[in-house]
């Protein structure tokens, strides 16, 4: 299902991406240095919601966006950031954008897929070979086509793609090394049919639950395990109520930076440029930050008593093989051509 990406291609993509964002930075510098432009910007206050703890790199990226916008607009544009699902769950935030009560939001692709199903491509289990492959899909032609179609059909604009990283499996009592270890365990999963199907294929008992409810669910034994990237496990304290974590890397968690298109259409061009380029600037910052802290978090978890399991290639293949039925089901639902384009993305 997966193939190793040549190192030279990865470097070439990185250079192209860096060049694109140098151009973005130059555009932002033009806005900042051109006093007349900043002076002409309208005064406005906008709402930015997300479900993440204030210390999470995703939350820090959202706040960084707000801070840069305030600075570059000469203090005229205030972006109020609401973390920790304080103005709604991931689903609530998407609905809020559609009805115009939320201006910006960070929402996992799997939650947005409930409103625009082709986004399930991002959560097709074991689709991505590595993070560079995921970036090639999210930042390249495949992603651009998806976002344009989603905008047309839902009125939701995509400005950037942050990330939580690859998802892991945590449990309270069972060390997970092979698919059979999952059988019968009650796992919290994202409320999306693809996530449910993935865990059913492994023999687990999937239970959809909002992210804000997971810690309590684990603490009270409503569920025995869950799957989330390392950053979420640490930021939400799941390591305090779980004894085992397996680095399964079964799905990549892209976090969409969304905007209300009705709000967007009313903005002056210079404000649109400021928002778009700042979203891309903070996207790159957040990705670097989340990747930098993952090993630190894992080290802290191990020192805190959590058992960390790193799958061998043979063990990982057993999990991949168990996903054949899921791929067969979603090849028709997502579209064979879209899957092929994502697999081939470079």
UniProtKB/TrEMBL annotation:
Gene3D superfamilies: Bacterial extracellular solute-binding protein, family 7. Pfam families: DctP (PF03480). Keywords: Signal, Transport. It comes from the Bacteria. GO terms for biological process: transmembrane transport. InterPro entries: DctP_fam, TRAP_DctP, TRAP_DctP_sf. One of its GO terms (cellular component) is outer membrane-bounded periplasmic space. Belongs to the bacterial solute-binding protein 7 family. PANTHER family: C4-DICARBOXYLATE-BINDING PROTEIN DCTB (PTHR33376:SF7), PTHR33376. This is C4-dicarboxylate ABC transporter substrate-binding protein. It comes from Rhodobium orientis.
């Amino acid at each position: 299902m997966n193939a190793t990406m040549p190192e030279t291609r990865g470097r070439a993509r990185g250079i192209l991406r860096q060049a694109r964002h140098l151009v973005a930075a130059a555009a932002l510098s033009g806005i900042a240095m051109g006093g007349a432009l900043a002076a002409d910007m309208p005064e406005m206050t906008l709402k930015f919601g997300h479900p993440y703890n204030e210390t999470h790199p995703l939350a820090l990226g959202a706040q960084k966006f707000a801070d840069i916008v305030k600075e570059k607009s000469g203090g005229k544009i205030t972006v109020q950031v609401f973390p920790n699902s304080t103005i709604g769950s991931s689903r609530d935030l998407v609905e809020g954008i559609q009805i115009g009560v939320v201006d910006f939001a960070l929402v996992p692709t799997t939650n947005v897929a409930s409103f625009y199903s082709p986004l399930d491509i991002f959560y097709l289990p074991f689709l991505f070979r590595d993070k560079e492959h995921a970036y090639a899909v999210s930042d390249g032609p495949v992603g651009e086509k998806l976002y344009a179609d989603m905008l047309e059909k839902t009125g939701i604009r995509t400005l950037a793609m942050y990330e939580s990283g690859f998802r892991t499996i945590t449990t309270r009592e069972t060390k997970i090394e092979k698919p059979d270890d999952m059988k019968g365990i009650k796992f919290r999963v994202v409320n999306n049919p693809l996530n449910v199907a993935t865990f059913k294929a492994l023999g687990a008992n999937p239970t959809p639950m909002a992210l804000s409810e997971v810690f309590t669910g684990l603490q009270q034994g409503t569920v025995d395990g869950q799957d989330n990237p390392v950053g979420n496990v640490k930021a939400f304290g799941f390591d305090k109520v779980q004894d085992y974590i397996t680095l399964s890397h079964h799905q990549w968690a892209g976090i969409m930076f969304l905007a209300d298109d009705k709000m967007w259409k009313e903005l002056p061009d210079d404000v649109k440029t400021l928002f778009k380029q700042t979203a891309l600037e903070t996207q790159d910052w957040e990705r670097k930050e989340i990747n930098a802290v993952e090993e630190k978090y894992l080290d802290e978890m191990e020192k805190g008593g959590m058992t960390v399991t790193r799958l061998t290639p043979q063990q990982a293949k057993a999990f991949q093989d168990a996903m054949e039925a899921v791929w067969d089901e979603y090849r028709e639902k997502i579209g064979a051509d879209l899957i092929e384009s994502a697999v081939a993305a470079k």
